[in-house]
Amino acid sequence: MVNRHSREEMLSVALDAAVEGGLSRLTFGRLASRLKTSDRMVVYYFPKKDDLVTAVLEVVGHRLQHVLAAAFSTPMNNHRSLVAAAWPVVAQPEYDPLFGLYFEAIGQATAGIEPYKSVASQLIEVWIEWLGGFVLGDPDHRRTEAAAAVALLDGLLLMRLLGGSSLADTASTPLLEPGS
Length: 180
Description:
The structure is a single chain. The chain is 73% helix and 0% strand. By secondary structure, the protein is mainly α. It folds into 2 domains: 1-47, Arc Repressor Mutant, subunit A (Orthogonal Bundle), CATH 1.10.10; 57-176. Helix 1 (7-21) crosses helix 4 and helix 6 packs across helix 7. It is elongated. The mean pLDDT is 93.
């Protein structure tokens, strides 16, 4: 008997599978097996693997935005303030797997591989727009500061994932000091 699952259930299981094995190993067959359903059921909701990968990355982005929203209780003046508020939140080990998926997608995007190339640029745009909502000033200032915050956070997070939390925390100190 084939079990029926909602799109949301499938996405939840797909995210778990991607966290365990990476986006590159996420297939219709693996997802169907985990759900004890058929490949056709997965294809019903996600006609192409690109659709599945894109949906998983959107879930990652939404989860991270939910976590970060608490760090931005008041509007801030600049990217350093944004990063100083965000870093203690995003530098928690429980978020490493989500950022691992994000950086896997970014790596595939830099190689020009779809859907990663399209999705990565959309993700970065969404992050800049979202973070800009927490910056004071005119639209150009908000966008510039949000883009700088994304660049700084991405660098620190990549350092954290590759070099360890101690190295990333050490690097964050002078970057986030007021007046530096």
